């Protein structure tokens, strides 16, 4: 196994476990990730996902360039996973919040996986980049289309056209990273974000994720008019009553996810 998966106390933790290869993703690892995302989607008890890489050198260096597939760039593009790199960059069926715990470099496909997450917590030593052009490739599995939507266009293009790496502090400045902490505080900071997520009504979080995802490119009035199933489910849920009741009774709500 090159991916470690655990689920406990409503939190699924997914770790790319190939530190000797900078947590690069080969075909087998990609298949494991797809299987894990499907397991998480089928488990109603999961309310948050933490995605990270093993060790302290890399979140993921992306595609394993030593993986001899014999596939041309054009063939790779034609057969690309519609879910994006790591089956997460474009994934829409995963409805719970996903935190990227970035413990080192996030390059190429590793960066594309970060772009598919909802919240990014990075160690001060983390570095981000899409260096594909330096090796005659392209960031086909999410990079070219997602990065320009999440940070200023010229910054995104500059990174892709030079292959440069950006620091965690730079990416926080441009709005991609939510928090930057010393490496020895990365777990504690991630756990604080997890705790805050679990304190919120799970159906509300699903509705927020769906609405943000589905309306990002719509004019505000059209976005406001959207009535997604996730939005309706949150509004008519028992949890919506429990939240108000708990506030009035000055206690923590007990969420049922229904």
TrEMBL record:
InterPro entries per UniProt: Enoyl-CoA_hyd/isom_CS, Enoyl-CoA_hydra/iso
Pfam family, one: ECH_1
Lineage: superkingdom: Bacteria
Family named by the database record: Belongs to the enoyl-CoA hydratase/isomerase family.
PANTHER family tied to this protein: ENOYL-COA HYDRATASE, MITOCHONDRIAL, ENOYL-COA HYDRATASE-RELATED
Protein name (database record): Enoyl-CoA hydratase/isomerase family protein
């Amino acid at each position: 196994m090159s991916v470690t998966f655990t689920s406990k106390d409503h939190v699924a933790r997914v770790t790319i476990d190939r530190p000797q290869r900078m947590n690069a993703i080969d075909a087998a690892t990609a298949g494991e990730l797809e299987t894990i995302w499907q397991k998480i989607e089928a488990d109603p008890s999961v309310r948050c996902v933490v995605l990270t890489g093993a060790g302290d050198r890399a979140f993921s260096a992306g595609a394993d360039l030593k993986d001899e597939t014999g596939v041309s760039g054009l063939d790779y593009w034609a057969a690309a996973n519609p879910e994006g790199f790591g089956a997460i960059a474009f994934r829409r069926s995963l409805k719970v919040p996903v935190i990227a715990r970035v413990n080192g470099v996030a390059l190429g496909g590793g960066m594309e996986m970060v772009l598919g997450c909802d919240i990014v917590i990075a160690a001060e030593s983390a570095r981000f980049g899409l260096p594909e052009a330096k090796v005659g490739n392209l960031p086909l599995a999410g990079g070219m289309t997602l990065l320009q939507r999440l940070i200023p266009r010229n910054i995104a293009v500059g990174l892709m056209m030079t292959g440069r790496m950006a620091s965690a502090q730079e990416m926080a400045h441009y709005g991609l990273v939510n928090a930057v902490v010393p490496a020895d505080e990365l777990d504690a900071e991630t756990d604080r974000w997890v705790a805050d997520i679990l304190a919120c009504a799970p159906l509300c979080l699903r509705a927020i994720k769906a609405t943000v995802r589905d309306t990002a490119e719509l004019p505000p009035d059209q976005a406001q008019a959207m009535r997604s199933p996730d939005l309706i489910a949150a509004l008519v849920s028992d949890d919506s009553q429990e939240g108000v009741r708990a506030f009035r009774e000055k206690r923590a709500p007990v969420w049922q996810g229904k």
